[in-house]
Amino acid sequence: MPTKTARKRARKDACEGKKPSTQAGEFVREEMREFKRGSGNVRSRQQASAIGLSEARRSGVKLGAPRKGKTSKATRRKARRDSANGAPVFCVP
């Protein structure tokens, strides 16, 4: 579950017009921090980044699904589902 600060930073990045990958970086950074602390259920850096991207999609960051040669069909389907269910990010001044 993404923290309130990660969502707030991602929303700020969106309002500033930054790329979706930059917005998603906040969620990935949070997962990496938990991985380094040893808390959570993350076993590797790769898994931490995948979880962070998934949380970003669910939070409304407009990331696409991975390309065909990169991941399995099930992973691409889950990524599309997360993107579709994500609430849109609104800029609040």
What do these coordinates show?
The protein is mainly α and 93 residues long. It has four helices and no strands. It has helices at 4-15, 20-37, 45-58, 73-85. Helix 1 (4-15) packs antiparallel against helix 2 (20-37) and helix 2 crosses helix 3 (45-58). The mean pLDDT is 89.
Tag the structure with descriptive keywords:
mainly alpha; 93 residues; 4 helices; globular
Give a nutshell description of this structure.
With 93 residues, the chain is mainly α. It is built from four helices and no strands.
Count of extended strands? 0
Largest sheet: none
Distinct helical segment count? 4
Helix content range of the residues, please?
55-70%
The run of helices and strands is: HHHH
Structural class: mainly alpha
What ranges have pLDDT less than 50 throughout 5 or more consecutive residues? none
- Could you tell me the mean pLDDT? 89
Strand content: under 5%
How far the N terminus sits from the C terminus, by CA atoms, comes to 25 Å
What is the global morphology? globular
Radius of gyration, in Å, reads 13 Å
